[in-house]
Design goal:
The complex is a heterodimer of chains A (117) and B (142).
Chain A (H helix, E strand, L loop, with lengths): L3 E8 L2 E10 L4 H13 L6 E12 L1 H16 L3 E5 L3 H10 L7 E2 L2 H6 L4
Parallel strand pairs in A: 2-3, 3-4, 4-5
Antiparallel strand pairs in A: 1-2
Helix pairs in contact in A: 1-2
Chain B lengths: L4 E9 L5 H14 L5 H30 L6 E9 L2 E7 L24 H8 L2 E4 L5 E7 L1
Antiparallel strand pairs in B: 1-2, 2-3, 3-5, 4-5
Helix pairs in contact in B: 1-2, 2-3
The chains are: A alpha/beta (117), B alpha+beta (142).
């Protein structure tokens, strides 16, 4: 298993989920389960921003993880956005057309302030 | 291009942590060959990571299921750089798969899996397989 970590910072009904390291096929399933467990303990959260500032790379399984969390939030009438991706990860989003489904912001603050469409 | 042709072979264990060091070696070869286009490196990295992920996640997994995990399975790679193109090949220890019936069109989708090959196809100029389906080649025109 590659080194990775996951933190959930909650403020009222909003939360930032911070990933670190690589989010790839080797760890994405475990990260997905851990993230869902954390979110399940914070039922009031209805706006989630995934902070990728400390993620060096995210592959197709990482895209799957984001979509899984998007569906998880949608099932509880919440929203999900992604922020602070580096140029490589933005390119992965572009190739997979993820940004046509999920809002992608330059920074976490911008994503937190934005009202859901 | 300073050198007209580079041909390198690599072999890695079927482990995720071997991918990043391998990519560093490949990028060093590109730099030494004066392949400087950031766009090519972006595309090669996306494709290479998906090719290696598939080799480990599917090829190795199937080989290990059939022959046991204790066997020392390896992934074999070839890198060719010439003045017109970069060719990157990955051969996994698995039995292969039915690549002829894969849908390679990328559409916005909520599906959580099934993007790897589509991404390789999208970022490379050509993607091809051997008949068994356990060796994939991606070609990038310079």
């Amino acid at each position: 298993m590659l080194k990775e970590s996951l933190k959930l910072l909650v403020e009222n009904n909003k939360a930032v989920l911070k990933f670190e390291g690589e989010v790839i096929f080797d760890n994405s399933n475990q990260l997905k389960e851990e993230a869902k467990q954390m979110l399940s303990k914070n039922e009031g959260v209805n706006k989630l921003v995934i902070d990728l500032a400390n993620v060096s790379y995210l592959d197709s399984s990482g895209v799957g993880l984001i979509l899984s969390l998007f569906k998880f939030m949608r099932n509880k009438k919440g929203t999900l956005a992604v922020a602070a991706a580096n140029e490589k990860i933005k390119r992965v989003f572009e190739v997979t057309k993820l940004q046509e489904i999920i809002p992608v912001y330059a920074g976490v603050e911008e994503a937190m302030e934005e009202e859901p469409v | 291009m300073q050198s007209s042709r580079v041909e390198k072979n690599y072999e890695i264990a079927c482990k995720a942590e071997e991918i990043s060091p391998l990519l560093e070696k490949i990028f060093l070869e590109l730099d030494n060959s004066a392949v400087s286009a950031a766009e090519i490196k972006f595309c090669l990295e996306i494709a290479a990571r998906e090719m290696l992920a598939n080799a480990i996640e599917h090829g190795y997994a199937l080989a290990a299921e059939k022959n046991g995990r204790l066997k020392n399975f390896k992934i074999k790679l070839e890198l060719q750089i010439c003045s017109e193109k970069i060719v990157f090949k990955v051969k996994d220890p698995g039995p292969g798969f039915d690549w002829e019936n894969c849908d390679l069109e990328i559409k916005p989708s909520f599906a959580e899996k099934g993007r790897g090959l589509k991404m390789i196809n999208q970022v490379s100029d050509q993607m091809k397989f051997n008949s068994a389906g356990n060796k994939i080649t991606a070609v990038f025109k310079l």
